[in-house]
Design goal:
The chain is about 40% helix and about 15% strand. It has 6 helices and 4 strands. It has helices at about 10-25, 60-70, 75-80, 90-100, 110-115, 135-140, and strands spanning about 35, 45-50, 80-85, 105-110. The radius of gyration is 18 Å and the shape is globular. It holds the Pfam family dCMP_cyt_deam_1. InterPro entries: CMP_dCMP_dom, Cytidine_deaminase-like. Keywords: Hydrolase. It is an enzyme of class 3 (hydrolase).
Length: about 150
C-alpha cells in the first residue's frame, strides 16, 4: 500500500465524517463532521458543526473534538489518535488540534477544494495591525514556554 492509499477502516471512518457533515447540513448548519479514533480503531468521540444551531461561531467539530481530547486524554494517549474529518481543519481548529496533541488528521476535502465550492467571502475581512509594544508583550511571555 502506498502512502496515498487508505485502508478499508480509514475509508469507513472518513465516510462517517462525511455522514456527520450531511447531518449538520440537514440541521441547517455548515456541512462539516469529524470523529476521533483511538489506536485500536475504537471511535472515541464524534461531532458535527453546530455553528448556526448552537449560536457559536467556534462550534466546528474539529475544535470540539480537540477540546474533548485535551480534557479526557493524556498527551500520550492523544498522540495515538487519528481525527477523520470531512474537510481540512481551518486555522483555528488546526491550532487546537496541535495543542491537544492529536497524532494525525485525515481529511476528505482540502481547504483549496472547499474554497472552490464556496462563493467568495463577503465583506472586507479583518485588518491585522501589529506587532506593537514588543518589549511589554515579550515580558509577559518570556520564560513561559521553557
Amino acid at each position: 500500500m502506498t502512502p496515498d492509499e487508505m485502508t478499508p477502516d480509514e475509508e469507513r471512518f472518513l465516510r462517517r465524517a462525511i455522514e456527520l457533515a450531511t447531518e449538520a447540513r440537514a440541521a441547517g448548519d455548515p456541512p462539516f463532521g469529524s470523529l476521533l479514533v483511538g489506536a485500536d480503531g475504537t471511535v472515541l468521540a464524534e461531532d458535527r458543526n453546530t455553528t448556526v444551531s448552537g449560536g457559536d461561531v467556534t462550534a466546528h467539530p474539529e475544535l470540539k473534538l480537540a477540546r474533548w481530547a485535551a480534557r479526557e486524554l493524556t498527551p500520550d494517549a492523544a498522540a495515538t489518535t487519528t481525527m477523520y474529518t470531512s474537510c481540512q481543519p481551518c486555522g483555528m481548529c488546526a491550532g487546537a488540534i496541535e495543542r491537544s496533541f492529536l497524532g494525525r488528521v485525515v481529511f476528505a476535502l482540502s481547504n483549496e477544494q472547499l474554497a472552490a465550492l464556496k462563493p467568495p467571502a463577503a465583506g472586507p475581512g479583518v485588518r491585522l495591525d501589529g506587532p506593537h509594544l514588543y518589549d511589554e508583550a515579550r515580558a509577559a511571555v518570556a520564560g513561559y514556554y521553557l
